[in-house]
Each structure stands twice: as C-alpha cells, then as structure tokens.
Amino acid sequence: MTLKIExxxxxxxxxxxxxxxxxxxxxxxxEQHVVPNLIGRDAGRxxxxxxxxxxxxxxxxxxxxxxxxxxxxxxxxxxxxxxxGLPLYRLLGGRSREGVLAxxxxxxxxxxxxxxxxxxxIEAGYRAVRVQCGxxxxxxxxxxxxxxxxxxxxxxxxxATRTGAGSGYEPAESALPAETFWSAAPYLEIVPRLxxxxxxxxxxxxxxxxxxxxxxTPVEAARLARDLEPYRLFWLExxxxxxxxxxxxxxxxxxxxxxxxxxVFNSMWDCKHLIEARLIDYIRTAIVHAGGITHVRRLxxxxxxxxxxxxxxxxxxxxxxxxxxxxxxxxWVPNFGIQEYMPHTEQTLEVFPRDYRFHDGQLxxxxxxxxxxxxxxxxxxxxxxxxxxxxxxxxxxxxxxxW
Length: 403
Ligand code: KDG
Ligand code: MG
What we know:
Helix content is 37%, strand content 15%.
C-alpha cells in the first residue's frame, strides 16, 4: 500500500502504508478520513499535520491509525527533501556513519542446512545474520521456507532472488491463512545446538541473531536466553509477546543475552516502559508502523537516553519506500544498532526504482533528494491486488498460539 501526495507545484512524495494482512483498513482510513483533510494543506507543515492527524482524531495509536499517519508523514518528508534538493538524512541532521550494518536471513530445514546457508551469507559479504532452522516434529516452523535454505540462490546485493525465502510466511494458496504449528520443547532443545554449531563453523566474528517470534512463555524465554549466552548473540528477538511487559523482567533476571523487541509496536507508548526500565537493548519499531519519521525520531531520542539502540524491522512486507526512509534515518540516528534486510523480489524492485544499495555487509542510502525511492505506476498496474493473510500458529492439540 503506497500513498502518493502531490502538491500544487507538481512536487510529490511517497509514503509506505503497508499493514500486511490488514492493508485495506489503512487504505479506507486514508481515503475516507485522512485524504479529505489533507487537500489544500501546506505540505511544509509536517509537524502540524502529524499533530493534527494524531491529536485531532481523538482515537489515538493502534496499527491502522499509526500506519496511515506514517504514510502521510514520510510522503511529506520526501516532498520537503525534493523541494530543498537534499537527501532526507541531511534534513534530519546529516550523516553519522558511512554505511548501515545490515543483517540477512539464513535458514534451513535442519542445523546442517542452516549452517551452510549462513556460510553463503558470509561469503556474500554479510557481517550479521539472523538464523532460523527447522524443528524436529514440527510442520512449517517460523522462518524456514518449505523449500529449506534455497540452496544455490545468492543472498544479498541486489540479487533479490529469495522470494519470501527465510520469512516462513509464503502466501497461502487460498485467501484463508496458512496454518503452522508450534511446540516449545523441541524448539528449546534445538536452538542452542544450532548456535553452538554456527560458532564452531563460522567463528566468533560474525554477528548472529535469532527471532523467537513471540512464541515463548516468560520462563521459556528466560531459559533460551540463558542457554544462548555462550554463543554471544547480537540479539534474541521477540522472545515473548510484548503486551506483557513485566515478562521481560524475568528474562533479564536470568540472562545477559541482548533483547530486541517492537516490530509490532505502533508508538513510543508501547515501548516506554521497556526502555525506561532497561528491559530491552534494541527497539525494532518500523517507521511505517509507528507514525513515520516525526514520531520514530522522538522514540529514538528517548531510547538514546537509556542506551537502547535502533534495529528497525525490514522484512519484505515493508515496501522499498519504507526501506529508503529507514536507511536515511539509520544514516543519521546517533543510537543506531543494526538494520534488518531482506531483499525484495525483482517484481517489487521494478515497481519501486530506488537509489539505496547493499555493499560489503552494509546498506547505503543514496544522495537523491528525499528518501530516494520512486514508484513506476505503469509497472505497478501489471500486478493487481490479490488478498493474502499472514499464517496462524496452533499447538499440536489444535489450540491457537501466537504467530
Ligand atoms: O508481517 C510479519 C513479518 O514482517 C514478520 O513475521 C517478519 O518477524 C519478522 C522479522 O523479524 O522480519
Ligand atoms: Mg521478527
């Protein structure tokens, strides 16, 4: 879902508005409630427009509202950059670093395959890799495509050949969500063995990450974080669902494995306690889902006060427009940690010409004015909308679990 805002002078800006699986709700929110309020407004009043959309609606926060506000906000920053003739990172305060450390997604049906896939990422220049692997006895575990580690495909650069690979959320055949299964016991056994093997095969220099994808109870999360300590992870992500923020106290009491959280957060109110109480080390909130640059900038400043660093969500269900904006933000933000990077498909990249690039383990935003990502509307028209939903997860007895 992409928002294009045009000004009377003919300048335009783009904002990502993708809320995967609930995207039409954002489209309706924008078309019916936001766009009528934008017509005739001064595109340069970015702060006032943000406050107008957030405070003025009375109904605050939530994924639909904050994604819609983010789309407007990023499009207005894009316009400002184009009118000023400056790349977005310069509007934010200028460059803090030469490149942005990126992590890719390796995976495999078993430890062997996952380690081989990690090796391919390292060969492709990655300095940080998130690794997931199949869980004995479990069908379709999170982060492992049914075809395994997609051997032979080249990760990174702009190859973009790994359509959805590593995501574990390939679209379902029907409009109904795919069903996946979850069982903590075999998972808690295999994951420490996976990282033991990765350190043995690939040494201590490569940064390793892992995503538990909100599946664990607090005490299971504490056990996993503790068991992973010898393998010095860069982070353990979404160890337990973060609605229950006290759960993170339990994890902290048992482990010094760094924790990352927040890809489903929509505002700084969602992470205020976790940051203030120093229960996390990295905040993953994406620009597209948390009110845009105007809000995430405040969130990052607040995080900096508590020595929490950024690690933005960058899966392929956030569009290249979001990635472009994130990379300018990452280039500027003083408390940058890492950026997730899953290359988009060739079709997606055809629709979104862009000037960011991957080189030697880092992503680099370009120097084009604004966020540097455009849309080819004729190419986009060749790919009509077809509804898809994210999968769901069930326990072996059939009860629903967190996906
Ligand atoms: O929309 C859901 C995906 O973006 C998410 O499952 C990917 O957890 C994810 C990650 O860390 O990239
Ligand atoms: Mg995740």
